Amino acid sequence: MSDESVAEPPSRARVKPAFYAAGRGVGGARDWLSLLHPPYTAWHLSYVAIGAALAAPMRFDRLGWALLAFFLALGVGAHALDEMHGQPLRTGITRQKLLSAAILTIGAAAAIGWFVGGLHLLPFIVVGAVSAFGYNLEWFGGMLHNALGFSLSWGAFPLLTGYFSQHWTISSSAIIAAAAAVAITLAQRALSTPARWLRRQAREANLAVTMQDGSLREFSSSDLVKPIENALKAISWGMVALAVALVVAQR
Length: 251
Known about the structure:
Blueprint: H1 29-35, H2 38-54, H3 60-84, H4 95-117, H5 122-136, H6 139-142, H7 147-167, H8 172-200, E1 206-210, E2 216-220, H9 221-249
Antiparallel strand pairs: 1-2
Helix pairs in contact: 2-3, 2-7, 2-9, 3-4, 3-5, 3-7, 4-5, 5-7, 7-8, 8-9
């Protein structure tokens, strides 16, 4: 998901606010697709699958419900709330539609959790709802809106939920895997923050590096952001591939 809302100067309007942005700023289907932050949504759904795969024998039906719930709450709901906070993706979707989408999808995710696990999943339902609204709308004085809050909410939490929803238990292996998810998500934020800043905030960037032989090598903003985003793309699809491999191994 997008973990920070950054305003954009008018002079950078032609630059896409994210490498995956497909919208035209008119509130149409492409704007809704951009709202999903597809690579990041897939990345964080992978944590759900990885957690479930660690809880053998796997209940594939419960994994399916967990993936659907997180797609709704995180992929749509949390991102809609994020877009309400300054419209970092310039989608053109109205605030009313964003709020409606957030309430409906997060509510639907909570209903799925109750349907699948009832009281077993109630603590996870509450934590998920508070995380979605609290992080993106910066509730509690922005206490949750930081690197640790992001990594716990969208790294550890999906993985632990995926694990727990299988057999209503938590093991040491799940906690260790959750710690790994926190570390990977912190790396994601460390990469995505400067990438978003260069795309959305910087008007122009020109970096001149003096080489050992005395020659100069110049870098534009696009030169600076490209390796960062290439790393994010590689990790996102790598996480998806790892999740799929672990799930397939349970068949």
